[in-house]
Amino acid sequence: MTAYWIGVASREHVQRGVASGFCQLCHGNAATLRRLKPGDRIVYYSPRIGMRRGEPVQAFTAIGEIAEGDSERVDIGDGFVPYRRCVIFYRSSAAAIQPLLPVLSFTRRLTNWGLVFRRGAFSMDRADYETIAHAMGVGPRR
């Protein structure tokens, strides 16, 4: 059964992942990535351009499908060795979150909707995924 996920990362980090075909969630936490299975869908939300810096983005910035294979550790220097998963990213456009706030089940009744994204990664239902995918210009995928 396909599951649907939101990952939270700066736009710069998301762009690196898209360029190299990987996702990294919660600063490379292995347990978080183990929850994702091949065929699951993932959407990235980017609050800012950079990690804790830069202009606000507040948009969904990438969307794709978890590829076959397990998580892998990658040494990116300075003692940081996060876990990553391969992703097949779809061609898409960024979609601002503001117009979607009243329709997404995880934001529609929240005054402080940004708090939900502080989890770093969470599951969503298929209807929310399809709403976001449509806003990003991605058609249905079975």
What this model shows, in words?
Strands 1, 2, 3, 4, 5, 6, 7 and 8 form an 8-stranded mixed sheet that branches. The longest helix has 10 residues, at 11-20. The protein contains 3 helices and 8 strands, in the order βαβαββββββα. It has helices at 11-20, 30-34, 126-135, and strands at residues 4-8, 22-23, 41-50, 53-66, 72-73, 83-89, 95-96, 121-124. A hairpin with a 2-residue loop joins strand 3 and strand 4 (53-66). With 142 residues, the chain is an alpha+beta fold. It is globular and about 40 Å long. The model has no long low-confidence stretch (mean pLDDT 93). The protein has a single domain, classed as ph1033 like fold.
Sum this structure up briefly.
Strands 1, 2, 3, 4, 5, 6, 7 and 8 form an eight-stranded mixed β-sheet that branches.
Compile the SSE list and pairings.
Blueprint: E1 4-8, H1 11-20, E2 22-23, H2 30-34, E3 41-50, E4 53-66, E5 72-73, E6 83-89, E7 95-96, E8 121-124, H3 126-135
Parallel strand pairs: 1-3
Antiparallel strand pairs: 1-8, 2-6, 3-4, 4-6, 4-7, 5-6
